[in-house]
DNA sequence: AGATTATGTAATTATGAAAGTTACGTAATG
DNA sequence: CATTACGTAACTTTCATAATTACATAATCT
């Protein structure tokens, strides 16, 4: 399956924005991210609905952080993206009347629910300020830019 | 993303096999599962490598459970499928030198690792016999067969 | 006012992984 | 030796994410 990298991408954008005071254009952000400005606008557009960023048009316009990073958790960002699907593993047939199917779905479902709860709990415990601090602890090299990308495991 | 339903599918197959003493052909299993015999052979072929099932060719041939279901955990089945990818959410760029990227990957990675550990721990605690028992507790209707299928959330 | 710079979005295309299908080889049985 | 089944490679289909194109709208600067 192709993994959804929107959360990773948007966090990357936000932390880069945190390094600047002036608004950054989607063009500039796209270059940092090795992607297309439209992708940036789509992602940040979702965050704007939740008040995490603001945007301005025209000369000197662009995107700005709209909240204290200490008050924004990883979970807030996840939610702003409208709860992306977490698991790559799914049930074969959600609505079957087959009892075997239902038992499988039920038992697996319990495990996935527990794992999801733990994951989201962790997300709530990490603020963007924490992540930004983590960046500065290791600050030495400059950002670089290569394509690729993948999963956890 | 399209969710991977192989684990769900193969569990479905195994629990159906548990209801029969004779070997079942991939043709018969495919019909129960509303899928193609080749798909069944592919899935069960992976399980055979781990000794979970056995197969025989020719007349009267087919697939048989090769282990006591009490001794096979959900994790064993997961592993037999060669550790399918668990998460639909991934890092944008696994190998970037960008420190922001690395911080994002690291922080998110910790949460995902914790969730994965919990999920797999749960998988280890459930045997196929447990799942089979769960089926029999609710045994009343007959298996039925409709297509579709999806995720958790 | 009018040129320029940005965002806002719809529509289209590209990518990649799972799933399904076809085709044919191999082995075991009646 | 015909039939039944597995064993697999190769190909096609499906579908969601990501990237791209195209164009509208709004704000700023000269």
From TrEMBL, chains A, B:
It comes from the Bacteria. PROSITE patterns: HTH_RRF2_2 (PS51197). Pfam families: Rrf2. This is Rrf2 family transcriptional regulator. It comes from Gilvimarinus algae.
């Amino acid at each position: 399956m192709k993994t959804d990298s929107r959360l990773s991408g948007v966090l990357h954008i936000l932390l880069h924005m945190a390094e600047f005071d002036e608004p950054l254009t989607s063009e500039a952000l796209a270059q940092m991210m090795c992607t297309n400005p439209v992708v940036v606008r789509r992602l940040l557009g979702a965050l704007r609905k939740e008040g995490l960023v603001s945007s301005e048009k025209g000369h000197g316009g662009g995107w700005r952080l709209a909240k204290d990073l200490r008050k924004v958790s990883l979970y807030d960002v996840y939610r702003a993206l409208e709860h992306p699907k977490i698991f790559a593993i799914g049930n074969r047939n959600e609505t079957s009347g087959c009892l075997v199917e239902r038992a499988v779905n039920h038992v697996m479902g319990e495990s996935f629910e527990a794992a999801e709860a733990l994951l989201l709990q962790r997300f709530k415990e990490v603020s963007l300020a924490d992540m930004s601090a983590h960046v500065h602890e290791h600050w030495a090299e400059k950002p670089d830019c290569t394509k690729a990308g993948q999963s956890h495991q």
